[in-house]
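Q: I have 271 residues here and want to know how they pack in 3D. Can you give me a structure?
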Amino acid sequence: MLYTFERLATYLTQRGYPDANQRGIQIIKRDLTREEQAGNLDFRDDGIYLKVNGQEYKGYMYLKYPNVATFGLPKFHITNCKTILEQRATGRFDGRYFWHNSKTVTIEDRANGQVHEDVNLTLCGNCERQSSIDDYWDTEGFFSLLDQQEVGETTREIQLDMFGRPLDWDAISKEYRKEKNYTCENCGFGGDMLESRKDREFIHTDHIVAWELANMRRNNLQCLCILCHSQKDELHKANFSKPGMQKRIQRFLDKYRVKLIELENEYIDNI
């Protein structure tokens, strides 16, 4: 089954959490002409915005295959400046430029085929004048400013409970487990194997790495059955060693041991 995660994403957005799809800036490179023809680009004064799956990303464009041997390294562009308009008018634009949002680029000299990696391109003078940019002058500066904006947009105060979890963690956990069909992402137990709705309590939502604001993102969440969760690491083994948790694990094993053996759960012999 394909899960779109729309409900969880909507919930996290409404609650002010960072985008659950990514950690930090998602680096993307696309053929600019193709994206423009598809209607996915928006040229603004501060950059070129690419829409991917309903999400906007700010970036720039650059010449992927320039004649470095003759003209040197190309400039990067953030607007439909005078240079770009001239390129369009003379038929030297389509299929030649790429959209990117990284701090450096890789280009290939069309004169001799030499590949130049991790190149920090300089901002086009016409773009600089047209946009009145004074925060950066190269792709590394562009990326640095983009990173600062990302942090600013995703920073907020999160109220935590006594265990260091967000106060609305139960709602987040429920939505994630529902979208994963209450199935353990480690051993595969869950879904239709559960004999009753009450047994969904044996399926947990786990943070892959420790609790912190930056980790309230979907790619840091995973569904684990209570057995896999209890054996994740030494900290979890200690947390699940309490009598109440041990009784819950035992109920799980008493009911589903045969199925866990069939699934070759790696921890079945540890309890």
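Q: Anything worth noting?
A: Residues 1-5, 151-157 have pLDDT under 50 and may be disordered. DSSP finds ten helices and ten strands in the chain.
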